Prior knowledge:
By secondary structure, the protein is an alpha+beta fold. The chain has helices at 2-19, 24-39, 66-69, 92-99, 122-127, 167-204, 210-230, 235-250, 261-264, 272-279, 281-287, 295-306, 345-360, 371-380, 388-396, 398-407, and strands at 41-52, 55-65, 84-86, 103-105, 134-140, 146-156, 162-163.
Amino acid sequence: MADEMSNLGSLFRLDLAMNQIQDLDLLLERILREARRVVHADAGSIYVKETLGGKGRLAIKYAQNDTQQKKLPPGQKLIYSIFSIPINEQSLSGYCALTGRLVNVPDVYRIPRGAPYSYDSSYDMVSGYKTTSTLTVPLKTTEDKLLGVIQMINATDEAGNWGPFSKEDEALISDFAFNAAIVLQRAYMNRVMILRMIRLSELRDPKETGPHVNRVAGYAVEMYDRWAYHHKVPEQEREKFKDAFKIGAMFHDVGKVAISDLILKKPARFTSEEYDIMQRHTLYGADLFGDPQSSLDIIARDVALNHHENWDGSGYPGWLDPVSKEPIRNHQGKMLGKKGEEIPLTGRIVAIADVFDALCSKRVYKDPWSKEAALAEIHHLAGTKFDPELVEIFFEIFPHIEHVQDLYPESGIS
């Protein structure tokens, strides 16, 4: 009875914790981590349902593995393969999604011959990790809509030995999945609303696509996470900040909705007057969050206002007059830019993320730069345009930057 009450208390605390997370991606990652904790799983994956060409598929969003994680240097995160599978009876996850049933397999290499599903051992061969037991559960809303699937891998006892998942684990993961789906549905609604706002910018400026803002926000959070690790920011504080930063970074160019199409879509080089108007998109974006009601508003305001500031003080809009909120200019009419650590950390991070993604993306006026050329440019601009410490961090975590690119391809689902 005491164990049951303890488990119920843990689920209640997890439910409260998950309800505080606003960003969809960070919530998915947290759901997977807490699901593994609930049933003591060494590893696991979380898939979301996507529709491509009218057919449903499960796309992996996060994978975690304690055994593999322990092999990495401190502060580094596991990188996993990006793939999707059809929703059918052939795989464990596909069968779970198709039928809506929990699937508990004690040993994936000894699945009964009459079972409709099988296990693809190539995953183990590629990763060098032996999967034994799995526990797969659907994430379904109260309206019975499938959002995705959680798969737990290798139940672990107190001595660290692997074994099958129990009937108690089945009950715990089912309760957890029910609550997680409710929270996840809210996060999906938040993401949809954010992307609808971004599409207002996209209607004005074709560069502001859903994948672009997701990539920029993804790069930014990865950079902040490593910066915070190096600066010994407590984990709870780091996770809370990442949640708001991930969403705030998506609004970096939202102020472009206030710029005239004659300027925004001009195919030729701007005149000095047009460039001055274009620069004001930072002011317009910040003004949308001018009466901040939360940490998210503050971060979104700081990002919108400061992501074009340069480390050497040559960026814009620079310092603002406290009364007029207009840029302060010198006697030559030039804006007085912020420099160095006068620029908020969020602005310095998004500056690198935005430029890198722009360089690597195809535009009507240019082909995408090669990865090597884009990296050389980022390196070249360290100490002038970009914070040199953050450039070092960018290169340190570049495999994770590439991983974000794979998660949000330009033609993919955003």
